[in-house]
Structures are given as C-alpha cells and as structure tokens.
Design goal:
By secondary structure, the protein is mainly β. The protein has one helix spanning 4-16; strands at 20-26, 34-35, 40-41, 47-58, 64-68, 71-75, 78-82, 96-101, 112-115, 127-133. The longest helix is centred in the N-terminal third of the chain and has 13 residues, at 4-16. Pfam families: DUF6093.
C-alpha cells in the first residue's frame, strides 16, 4: 500500500527532475478589442492557467509516420510533466504551454506545445500531459 509519506517522497523526486519552467495559457473569453487597422476584433488576451516548473519528455511510445497533405512526416509522442498541484490540475485540452526556461537544452526555450488531453490518477507522482509541438 502506498502511504501519503511515500507518495510525497516520490513526488518530490519527480519534481527534482523538472528543471525547466513553462507558462500554460488558455484562450481568453468574450470579445477582444477593436482593431482599426484590420477592421476586426482582436482575440481576447490569453489567460494564464499555470506557471512554474515542468519537464518535456518523449513518452517512450514509438514514433509513427503520418501524412500531412502529400508529405510523410514522423510524429513522436511527447509529454509535459507538471507537479501534482491544484494549479496544474486546471490544465485541459487545447491549452498552450510556452517553454520559458530549460537549462539542460536552451534550444527548447520559446517552443510552444498544445495540450492534447488531461491527465489524472489516484496516486501519480506527476501530471503527464500528452502534448504536440507547434513551435
């Protein structure tokens, strides 16, 4: 049986590996402001859902090929790992994660990922959200 103390230790170990930071936003609601230059309304500002430590990792599933028009592309499964906190539990499908810092691979800074599904479980050490890079 997994005790609360053991789960706390496991979660702390998982968070110690989350050396990157990211900000997750969601499309704003309502009507944006009028843009005189375009003659249309701009999108409303995005709303921050989570900001803090994270980790991007290959899910371990195999890479698959997919057709995009007439081009064959390789698609790999990525996951965004977040601490199990109240704020990270609010993340949902189609939210956008922006990589703010990544000391172990600075080339990922500025990348953006779309969350493809939520993640939940009874005794998880991290939220592991399937994501797709949109860069």
């Amino acid at each position: 049986m997994l005790t609360a103390q053991m789960l706390g230790i496991a979660r702390a170990a998982a968070e110690a590996e989350m050396t990157s930071t990211c900000t997750i936003t969601r499309a704003g609601t309502g009507q944006g402001t009028w843009n005189e230059a375009t003659g249309t309304y701009d999108d409303p500002p995005r709303v921050t859902i989570y900001s803090g430590i994270c980790k991007v990792q290959d899910s371990g599933r195999s890479t698959t090929d997919a057709e995009a028009g007439e081009v064959l592309v390789a698609v790999s499964s990525l996951e965004l790992h977040l601490p199990v906190t109240g704020a990270s539990g609010a993340v949902r499908r189609d939210d956008v994660a922006h990589m703010d810092s990544n000391p172990n691979d600075p080339a990922l800074v500025g990348w953006e990922f779309i969350v493809r599904a939520p993640h939940a479980g009874t005794a998880k050490t991290a939220r592991r959200l399937p994501i797709e890079a949109v860069r």
